[in-house]
Design a protein that fits this description.
Low-confidence stretches: 1-14, 17-34, 249-253, 255-262
CATH class: Alpha Beta
Helix content: 40-55%
Strand order of the largest sheet: 2-1-3-4-5
Number of domains: 1
Number of strands: 5
CATH superfamily: TolB, N-terminal domain
Number of helices: 8
Distance between the termini: 131 Å
Largest sheet: 5 strands, mixed
Shape: globular
Length: 266
């Protein structure tokens, strides 16, 4: 009996261990499934609102003025396709910044945060452009409206004709920082807007809002129409659509094919 009992106990123990292994294996599978599900990216539940402001430039470098305002246009061009960003129209953000700055045109973290809060945004850009070794030195900060959040910084030595790529890279890095979806498509590697048109847009932005020059609002019809022809959304982000009209599409010429012409009267 002792031997028989002794032999029966190992069998029961083996069966118990087998059952435990099955349960443990099942629990492990459930655990791994839950863990995999929990590790999925948690994208922002709604688009993050951001205001785009011109980077600071050396006060004695007049040539960099158009580049500073062109940076805003290029940022808007690249950022408007981001699924998890909502851009504050430039025609809303710049007047608030100008009012806060007074006669100065040097943004600070505090003013950028103030502008963001005034226009209902969670973030604002604030940076610096200055001549570099082979072009320009770009520093771009993403400043949170709330002091409890941490700013994000991007820095790059680049050329003016490479700004689009660098600004796109900065936006993509910022989106990763927010745990948001990246920009669609690939880096173009060149200016997203033709250089000549970009200078025209920058000059129009300056006249419209008076960032560097004296403000002459309502005179950006040509620049607005030029942008709107290829990118209506960008035009409406840069200039107040209440002041400018999108160019009407030209009606197609009627085809004479298949049109019956009545015979001349006798």
């Amino acid at each position: 009996m002792t031997r028989a009992t002794g032999m029966v106990r190992p069998k029961r123990l083996a069966a118990g261990l087998l059952a435990f292994a099955v349960v443990a294996g099942s629990s492990g599978c459930l655990f791994h499934r839950k863990k995999a599900k929990a590790s999925a990216p948690a994208y922002p539940p709604s688009p993050v609102r951001i205001a785009l402001l011109p980077p600071n430039i050396p006060s004695d470098d007049a040539e960099m003025r158009w580049v500073s305002l062109a940076t805003v246009a290029l940022l808007a061009k690249e950022a408007k396709s981001a699924q998890d960003l909502e851009l504050v129209p430039v025609w809303q953000a710049l007047p608030v910044a100008i009012e806060a700055l007074g006669g100065s045109r040097t943004l600070t973290d505090e003013i950028a945060a103030y502008v963001a809060s005034r226009v209902g945004a969670k973030w604002a850009t604030e940076g610096e452009l200055k001549p570099g070794k082979d072009g320009v030195s770009l520093l771009l900060d993403f400043i949170p409206a709330k002091s409890s959040a941490v700013a994000y910084r991007y820095r790059k030595e680049t050329r003016v004709d490479g700004l689009s790529s660098n600004l796109r890279e900065a936006l993509d890095q910022f989106l990763r920082y927010l745990i948001a979806r990246p920009l669609p498509g690939k880096d173009r590697g060149k200016l997203a807007i033709d250089a000549g048109q970009l200078k025209e847009i920058a000059a129009a932005l300056d006249r419209e809002y008076g960032w560097f020059a004296s403000a002459e609002p309502g005179k950006a019809d040509k620049a607005f129409a030029g942008v709107a022809r290829s990118d209506d959304k960008l035009a409406r982000l840069l200039f107040n659509p209440a002041l400018y009209q999108t160019p009407a599409a030209q009606p197609a010429a009627p085809s004479r094919q298949g049109v019956s012409v009545p015979p001349p009267e006798p």
